[in-house]
Every structure is written in structure tokens, then in C-alpha cells.
Amino acid sequence: MSVDQAAKRDIPDATVARLPGYLRALGQLTVQDVLSVSSEELAHSAGVSSAKLRKDLSHLGSYGVRGVGYDVAHLTYQISRALGLTHDWPVVIVGMGNLGRALASYGGFATKGFKVVALLDRDPQLVGERLDELTVQPMGELVSLVTPGEACIGVIATPAASAQDVADLLVAAGVSSILNFAATAIQVPEGVHMRKVDLSTELQILAFHEQQRSASVADELLEGAG
Amino acid sequence: MSVDQAAKRDIPDATVARLPGYLRALGQLTVQDVLSVSSEELAHSAGVSSAKLRKDLSHLGSYGVRGVGYDVAHLTYQISRALGLTHDWPVVIVGMGNLGRALASYGGFATKGFKVVALLDRDPQLVGERLDELTVQPMGELVSLVTPGEACIGVIATPAASAQDVADLLVAAGVSSILNFAATAIQVPEGVHMRKVDLSTELQILAFHEQQRSASVADELLEGAG
DNA sequence: ACGCTCTTGTGAACAAATGCACAAAGTCGC
DNA sequence: GCGACTTTGTGCATTTGTTCACAAGAGCGT
Predict the structure, then answer these.
(1) Which residues of A are less than 8 Å from B204 in CB distance?
(2) Tens of pLDDT along B179-203?
(3) Do B204 and A85 touch (CB under 8 A)?
(4) Of A13, A184, B72, B85, which is least packed with CB atoms within 10 Å of its CB?
């Protein structure tokens, strides 16, 4: 048992970040009634190299069959288990603007491992509104919704200006994992896990690569001329 | 000049991914009328270590002053330039569901480096609707909007089922950078830059760490008892 | 001018991640 | 059974990224 957990514990971060991608690719194979898949095929669907995929999976254990490949259902289960998706995690979404609504109505939650248990907003105008079988509640309800000690994931979908306040409230209520969609960096105390998703960051990274491309094209022209 | 570009070219990926965060932190300092900042302070606002920040900035050039720190305005300019944000990049958003609307009305575009030039949707019901000074157009307009050779960033905010089709259309029209918000992996030809933003991936990574936490708490209890 | 204090920029050590190449281990046809 | 073939799992080399620790500068008071 301790061995089992130790095996899980040292899964590298880079691997953990790719596991959801494998899980998604496996989901597509499942609906296509594919029973078995090779590392080559699965890696291609997930957009990685097969060597990387195999090394990633080897961190979870040895679940493939040499000469054959991986059993789709079994590998799905093993990855889910490694990620901790064998039971549903409660999620509270704070901020019911455009983005909050989009997230709340996003189907991806229910399907795998998560359950939105509450929608919160500071604005009294929005409180009481029903969205997808849930009623928007005021921020004050936060403490009664989260049981400290029992894990819960908080999603921040507020404007940047209120993000830090909301994060502080979430932490005070006992939330230990936060996903921040607001366009600002927020500070959380040690022990709270925080991840950030941000449109402009992603666009800026793409812009950098576009710029590199045009710069190198320009260089080639110059070299050709020189 | 070639030296200048060569310096830019070998900025490590990990550094590029962090530059937008520094830019954002600098923006906050700017509105607070702070003129100068040390690596320690800036690193803290951006949530990284000061050593990492300094090494990252050293890849852009030597823009700090020893004993003093960095000039906020000048560093902002240098990072913007490195990322290619000295002029606006055109962005087309495909898919005007909840998410597409949220993205379209997201203020972050205009402020720095990007300009939404078109909103597209396959659904005739949505075509013609006005959102933030733009009219939703049918997919067919794509080719007339994008000038091949001139860089343009495409954002996919459609359901997963149509994401691959949309990506193919974008590529065919000449878009060379794609940001995919759909909950599916898409394949793009070599030479097209693709990034993926996905709620469930992020949640699953958080779930993994929550699970690690509870596992290690359980372990400690067992050790204490044993 | 000089020494004191501060903070950058960077070389060198260290750590993490990736890619390669192949032995190990399985299936299948005969 | 057995040899041919397939595909996994992994040791090793390489690349990429991070951390440390400090010399090299820059400002300041005297």
C-alpha cells in the first residue's frame, strides 16, 4: 500500500500535465468502441511523441502489453485513478459574468470527476438567478458551502479588481485549490494550490512565435539578397 | 541588427511563457505611479523567484541598473518588444456561444497588442447579431478576412465536435496561430502554432495535487500510529 | 576620491525533462 | 514448440530549465 502510494507520489509535473490529454484521447477511442491502442496511435491523438507517452505511462505502472498495446478501458481507469478522479470533486464558481456563465454551463464538469456545487456572485442583482439547476448565491454563503478539511476547488471568474479579495475569501473558507481565470496575478498562502488560465498570456505567447516567424522570414530574404 | 534579432531568437520557451506575467505586474506598478522596481519586488508580484526573474530578463538584454533596479516604463517597453506587441495583432474569434461572447467582450484584448477583427459563427441564427461594435459573420467570410502571409491569430470557441473542422478552415484561410478553447485535441499541419486552454485539464491537475495532499496526510497519520 | 551599501547579471552546479535506441516480452502463423 | 514480428518499458545521453552564490557595477554620503 505504501509502495502503491509512493509510486503515485513521484509522478513528474510534466507528466501530470499531460495525463488529462491522454484521458481525453482515450475517451474518444471509447466512444468509437476501440478496445486496444498502441502508444504510437494514442500519442498521435494526444499530440505528443510515442516515447514521451510511454515514459509518462511508465510512471503510473506497467499497464501495457508488449507487442499489443494498451487496453483502452483499463488505461482510462488507471489514469483516472492516478489523477484522483475516482470520485467527484466539488467545485464552486465565483463570478457570474459572461465567463462565469460559460464555465457553469460547460458540460465538461459532470462527465469526469467534478461537480459544480455552487455559483456565487457579489452582485445582489444576480443573486437568485437560476443557471443550470443551481441558484446564484451571495458571497456570504461561502463559509456554509465549504467544509474545511474536505477538499474543494474554487474557480475565480470575476473581474481582475476583485480577484484577490475573492481568493482571500476562498482561502479563509477552507478552499485549498484555486483556478484563477481573472486577468491578474493573485497571492495565496503556502499550502494552497493555485493555477491560472489567461487569454492574454496565451495570445502573447502566440504573438511571440508569430514575430519569430516573420523575423526569420525577413532574415532569409536578407541572406538571399546578401 | 542581425545580432539584435539573434538575441531575441534564443529566448527559452520557459522564459517566454513567463514574460506576460511580468508585463502584467509592471502594468499594475505603472498605474500606481511606481517608477522603479527591484527584481525582488517584481518577482514577488509575478509569483516567481527573483533569481528566475533576473535570468529571464537577462535573455532580453541588460536593462536594469545595479544597486537600483529596473525602470518600470523601459522594462515594460522592452518586454513588449520582445513579445512582438509593438503593433496590434488581428484576432478572429470563431464560435459565439457563451464562451465566445465572454472572450469577445473580454477587455484584455484592446489594452495590449491585440485587436479582434471578426466574430464568426456557423449558426445562421447568430449571424448578424452585434456584439461589442462587431457583427457576427458567417464562416464563409473567413477567407476574405484573413490575408495569407499577413499574420493573424484564430481563436476557437466552438463545441468540441466542430473544433477540428474550424481549425482546418482557419489553416486553409492562412491563419498560422491558433488558440483552442474547445475541449478536444486538434491536429494542425507543421508550421501552424497551436495552443490549448482547457478548463477540465486544469481542474484535473488541481485534483491530482489535492489527492496527493490527502494521501500524504493519511500517511502521516499512519506513521504517527505505527 | 573612497569606502559602504545595494542590486543586477551571470558562471557554475544542480535538477528536470526529453529523445534515442534497444532488450525484454508478448502475439501469431505454422 | 519455434521463429518472425510487434510493441512496450527503460537505461543512457542530451537538452532544457532552475537555483545558488558572488563578482561587477552603480549610487551616496562624507
Answers:
(1) 19-20, 23, 83, 85, 112-113
(2) 999 999 999 998 899 999 999 999 9
(3) yes
(4) A13
